[in-house]
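In the design runs reported in the main text, the only information available to the sequence generator was the tokenized backbone. The following block is the verbatim input for one such run; it is reproduced so that readers can re-run the procedure and compare outputs position by position.
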């Protein structure tokens, strides 16, 4: 089965197999947010996906 490229471009697989993704809502209209909120959105967050979704969309990427 082929890897879903649109999925794999949005999700990064760490060395241990953890899935990291970008926080949503940081493209524009950020001036009215507090500085702490903007800095929090710059970080990546861990994503929880079921094994069924990982098997279907991310085969061969090492996602555990």
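Verbatim output:
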């Amino acid at each position: 089965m082929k890897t879903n490229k649109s999925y794999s471009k949005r999700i990064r697989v760490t060395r241990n197999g953890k899935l990291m993704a970008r926080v949503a809502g940081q493209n524009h209209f950020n001036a009215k947010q507090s500085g702490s909120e903007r800095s929090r959105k710059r970080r990546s967050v861990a994503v929880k996906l079921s094994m069924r979704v990982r098997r279907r969309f991310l085969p061969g990427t090492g996602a555990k």
